[in-house]
Design a protein that fits this description.
The complex is a heterodimer of chains A (63) and B (167). Chain A is an alpha/beta fold. Chain A has two helices and four strands; from the N terminus they run βαβαββ. In chain B, strands 2-3-4-5 form a four-stranded mixed β-sheet. In chain B, strands 6-7-8 form a three-stranded mixed β-sheet. Helices cover 34% and strands 17% of the residues of chain B. Chain B has a domain of 113 residues: CBS-domain (Roll). Classes of the chains: A alpha/beta (63), B alpha/beta (167). At the A-B interface, strand 1, helix 1 and strand 4 of A face helix 1, strand 1 and helix 2 of B. Strand 4 of chain A pairs parallel with strand 1 of chain B.
Chain lengths: 63, 167
């Protein structure tokens, strides 16, 4: 089960564990504004190929 | 949506997956940075002055008034140790009994707006209600600054009278 986290925990993961941040909203909503450094992987397009942009060795935070 | 995406990612073999379910609305409301806006809009945090004079509940009016006078301001925001807004002293209160405590004469629960709120509709409401300033605070109630109507008008230009307003 993915771990639910707060804003503070997200910041800690990014700063201390080099976490990757993923915006799963549609591209248009991502374009309206997103968290710094977040990549866009819309839920509807999330498969093995699109997920290949992520580093499996680092934590991944999705929102 | 993100719980499903996170679960999906785990099925693809990722083992260190977290879900920030509160999402970007929570992030922006806390006054944290935004990236990649396709059509930038002016937001409260862009306009707010962040040099507010603050005082504590236990400060006397004399102390609060002196703090404000030193920097040429006419209000003092009453905050706790974490800068959470508790109240406000405006000109009338600052000119009152100098020995009174801020806690006893402050305006309770001053209206605030979020740092990520768009300036145009706020300005519209400020004009409609003849309000000259509004405090800008995070979703957690922490003071960021004060958005003055004159600053907002200067930055935003005259508000469009055609904008529908639910105020």
């Amino acid at each position: 089960m993915p771990t639910a986290i707060t804003r503070d925990e997200l910041q800690r993961l990014v700063h201390e564990e080099d976490a990757q941040v993923v915006d799963v909203l549609p591209a248009r909503e991502y374009a309206e504004g997103h968290l710094p450094g977040a990549v866009n992987l819309p839920l509807k397009k999330l498969d093995r190929d699109t997920a290949a942009v992520l580093d499996r060795a680092r934590p991944v935070v999705m929102y | 949506m993100s719980p499903r995406a996170a679960a999906r990612l785990e099925t693809l073999g990722f083992t260190n997956v977290y879900d920030y379910e509160a999402g970007k609305a929570d992030w922006f409301a806390a006054g944290l940075p935004r990236e990649g806006e396709a059509m930038p809009v002016l937001r409260a945090a862009d306009v707010a002055r962040t040099d507010d004079v603050t005082c504590t509940l236990a400060d006397t009016v004399a102390i609060a008034a002196e703090k404000a006078r030193e920097v040429g301001q006419n209000q003092c925001i009453v905050v706790n140790d974490e800068r959470i807004i508790l109240g406000r002293l405006r000109s009338a209160a600052l000119g009152g009994d100098p020995d009174a405590l801020a806690e006893d004469v402050m305006e309770l629960g001053p209206t605030t707006t979020r740092p990520d709120a768009e300036v145009a509709p706020i300005l519209h409401r400020m004009l409609a209600r003849d309000v000259d300033r509004i405090l800008v605070a995070t979703s957690g109630g922490r003071l960021i600054g004060t958005m003055w109507r004159t600053d907002a008008e200067h930055r935003a230009g005259e508000p469009d009278e055609e904008i529908a307003c639910d105020c």
